[in-house]
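Batch manifest, entry 17 of 40.
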Amino acid sequence: MSNNPVVHFEMPYKDPKRVSEFYQKVFGWKMVDAGEQMGHYLLAETAETDDKQMVKTPGTINGGFYELKQSPQSKEPSVVISVPDMKTAIENVKAADGEMLGEPTNIPGIGLWVSFKDSEGNRVSILQASN
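Output type: structure tokens
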């Protein structure tokens, strides 16, 4: 079993109200705007969470939506993979001919996050959770 599970998904939006209403109506997801300081990232609660915002049911994940104009190179849905060590994960991506898309960013209360392109040109993110 891998120590690097998929823990989150991300998709772009053009209209925050429209995308929120769509996923609420179709799937009953709770959509929460993380606010201006987080670039109006929309958190999508697809599964019940605990007081630390972690899913209660193993194997389920939550996700989020980002404004497309903030990341125009990322037009497709992507996944976020949990890694125990960011530095090692970045070295592994580079060694496998992946392309880093920036430097790791600290997301307060969440951890270090960065995106990369895999061997097929897909955008994927990695996250080293805060302790």
